[in-house]
């Protein structure tokens, strides 16, 4: 299939202009009522856009509503402590977003006197604001004609224009960006961007696009050829990596041993039970544990949980540890059992915490071992 059916320039311009008009009319008549639609506060728009990155709308809605009650203004977010911010984000994943949002609020407060910047260059200097968030915020909150390109937009544009190639790679990436830039109107660019995303989310679906309900069916290259499933082209899948995680529940004197993840990696600064990650299932996981935290003895298996992070499939075993040598890790802390559930855990360890921390003070306490007092 060619990138577009052969058309004269004027026919192509006419179709593109009809595309924008029909799309906007459809959006204004039938878009979903979402809590951030029609909102003008750039802070609220930023919160919704950051939450919507890599997360589905229905998951975001309750988080957004709770967040806006807890941190209704930029100032309330800027003044909050990081633990509170991460706790409010808990379960939404990609926690770096929460930390950057917090840092952005602090920057607006400290450097711009609490007034949200409106020019694209300054917005782009805020922590965590990449090209997608910049275009969404600048177009929706401030009316700049900047095109938003996300997964939904890519699907609509590659189908409608018949753009070949994997969208994350050149030259397709450039062609998509150029097409989106050409389409975005000076009038109501925010509505147009939201309309394109809404079409991708509600009509031009990945597996079964509802072409008969599509307001821009006429002129769609993929529809004309019955080739919707071929767009956008998929990148070859990443190989699945299996991993085995062994975690320990160590209780002593009404406290539980927990670790805080470091900066820069996955799920940074979230809490979890102390654990080791191995590439293979192994009954000798305690040797790895010893090198990381100190020796242990007399463990009782409590549960097994399977979870995925990107292309990693992880089998997590939780063991109660009854004898241990002093832990060595600076990030490990004895946390009172009543306080521990209030911390922001990684998603998998949150499930363990919910199940095993309540009533854990009735468990057999761990004893120091090997002269460790
Ligand atoms: S006609 Fe079908 S494939 Fe084309 S944009 Fe509309 S929903 Fe997508």
Write down the secondary-structure element order.
HHHHHHHHHHHHEEEEEHEEEHE
The share of residues in extended strands comes to: 15-25%
Number of DSSP helical runs: 14
Task: Name the CATH homologous superfamily of the largest domain.
Answer: Hypothetical protein, domain 2
Mean pLDDT: 90
Give every kind of bound small molecule, once each. iron/sulfur cluster
Alpha-carbon distance between the two ends: 74 Å
Helix percent band: 40-55%
Taking the sheet with the most strands, its summary is: 5 strands, mixed
- CATH-derived topology of the largest domain: Endonuclease III, domain 1
Structurally, the number of domains stands at 2
Give unreliable regions as ranges.
Answer: none
Q: What is the number of strand segments?
A: 9
Which class of the largest domain in CATH terms? Mainly Alpha
Radius of gyration over all CA atoms, rounded: 25 Å
Could you say what the CATH architecture of the largest domain is?
Orthogonal Bundle
Query: Helix- and strand-based class?
Result: alpha+beta
């Amino acid at each position: 299939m060619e990138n577009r059916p052969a058309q004269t320039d004027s026919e192509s311009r006419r179709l593109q202009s009809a595309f924008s008009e029909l799309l906007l009319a459809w959006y204004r008549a039938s878009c979903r009522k979402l809590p951030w639609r029609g909102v003008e506060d750039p802070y609220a728009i930023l919160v919704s856009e950051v939450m919507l990155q890599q997360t589905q709308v229905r998951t975001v809605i309750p988080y957004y509503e709770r967040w806006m009650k807890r941190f209704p203004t930029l100032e309330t977010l800027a003044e909050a402590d990081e633990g509170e911010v991460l706790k409010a984000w808990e379960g939404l994943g990609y926690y770096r977003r929460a930390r950057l949002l917090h840092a952005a609020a602090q920057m607006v407060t400290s450097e711009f006197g609490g007034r949200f910047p409106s020019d694209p260059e300054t917005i782009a200097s805020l922590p965590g604001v990449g090209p997608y968030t910049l275009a969404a915020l600048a177009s929706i909150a401030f009316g700049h004609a900047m095109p938003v390109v996300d997964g939904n937009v890519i699907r609509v544009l590659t189908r409608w224009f018949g753009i070949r190639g994997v969208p994350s790679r050149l030259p397709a990436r450039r062609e998509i960006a150029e097409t989106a830039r050409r389409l975005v109107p000076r009038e109501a660019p925010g509505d147009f961007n939201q309309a394109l995303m809404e079409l991708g989310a509600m009509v031009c679906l990945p597996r079964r696009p509802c072409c008969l309900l599509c307001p821009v069916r006429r002129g769609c290259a993929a529809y004309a050829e019955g080739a919707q499933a071929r767009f956008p082209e998929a990148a070859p899948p990443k190989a699945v990596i299996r991993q085995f995680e062994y975690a320990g529940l160590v209780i002593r004197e009404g406290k539980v041993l927990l670790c805080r993840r470091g900066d820069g990696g996955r799920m940074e600064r979230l809490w979890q039970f102390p654990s080791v990650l191995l590439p293979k299932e192994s009954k000798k996981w305690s040797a790895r544990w010893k090198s990381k935290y100190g020796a242990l003895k007399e463990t009782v298996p409590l549960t097994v949980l399977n979870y995925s992070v990107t292309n990693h499939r992880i089998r997590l075993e939780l063991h109660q540890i009854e004898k241990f040598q002093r832990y060595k890790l600076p990030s490990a802390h004895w946390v009172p059992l009543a306080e521990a559930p209030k911390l922001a855990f990684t998603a998998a360890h949150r499930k363990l915490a919910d199940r095993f921390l309540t009533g854990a003070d009735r468990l057999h306490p761990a004893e120091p071992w090997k002269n460790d007092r």
